[in-house]
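Supplementary Note 3. Input sequence used for the single-chain structure prediction.
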Amino acid sequence: MKNKKLLLWLIPVAVLIAAVVTCLLVFGVGTKNWQNILASVLEKTENFDGANKVGLNLIDLDNNKVPELLMTMPEKDGNYITKIFSVKDKEYVVNMVASYEDYLFEYLYNVKEDAYKWYAVTKDSKKVYEVNVGEEETVKETDLNYENDVVVVKKVEEKVEYEVNSKKDVWDTLEKSYAKNDTLVTDEVKEEVENTKMLSSIDKIDDSKPLVYTVKSVKSDVYANVTGQTLHNYYEYPAININNEDIIAINKDIAKNNQYDDMDIETGFFGEIEVITYDYYVNGNILSVVLLQGGNDSTWNTIYNIDLKTGKEIAVNDLLKDVDLTDVNAKIKEYAINMMEKTGKDLNLKEYWGDQYDTELANIKKKLDETLASPELVFRNADNDLILRVEFEVFGGQYTCTKMVEVNLTKNSDITEVKFEDYVQRGPNTQNK
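The predicted structure, written as discrete structure tokens, is reproduced below.
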């Protein structure tokens, strides 16, 4: 009876031992795990092709839970060389990638395939290539547009530098730099992916153009020396590329207020305008389009905030619903009145106008109060910060000029003046996109 009980106890032990042995054989745990296999790459001088220094990365390119070792060689015959060492049958195999442009390996969300994958992306042209580890054509060009068809989850820009002849052990550093693919997809990434899906599903007026694009761009030298510098003034206005009646109406309004006829363009006559330009920002479902005009010491804005889910314009009150502007308005009022009084004093208007000066000063102060009570210029910038801009009049020119200031409400920043001259210097086709 005792021998029978002993036999029954030994059976599960034997099964456990067999399972462990199987794991060792199948998964290579022990002397043949992937760490040891890939570390052995660095022990063989023939893998370096005579290079003295290489850059190393560990990346799970094929998403099979076992990373590949990437070895980037110095330029060779005008090419960029990357060797990809992967584990196969408890040994390593190598694929060679050669390119006339340097690659970055990036973990991207592919909107078209609804999938996360590693891709090779050229540094300058931003062409996106598939990476097929173990296949004859290791990298294959795709039709993916880097700006519109992907979400960047992770860029591998930092390489672990390895001096071949130093024999310095870099493997620990290399392993610490390795991150599993599933850890790269954070909640922030998932949110950005959902927003990208939304953007890709928008019904565009013209599928060949981005969400916001320049309708017409004109360069002129009429006011080239106004700011004391030789500058080319420019005039460019946008259209919002959404096939929606409300948006089409906004586009007509933008064109009406910013376009010029052929005669104006031919003669370079744009009145006193020195610059017309725009920026646009996308934050979640909010598209903010910020138009700017400036000239003759005046700066103006027109701002549109669009809900991308509905195609409707977002009311300023909705953007400011949780914001108390009491202190901000007080600071802006103090700033603006100081500027009003300074410009009046600099022009000696009290002396020339007499009592009329006090009347005019009271008028522009009253307009400022009305503006602060009903803000119109609000948007979210590239950092998703809520920005308030305020226009007000000061004395200058033939009578008054329009100045503009802004406050970053998210960061409780100081008041700064927005000057059209800064946009003239920025130059055309450089929107903050």
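Confidence is low (pLDDT under 50) at residues 2-31. The longest strand covers residues 386-396.
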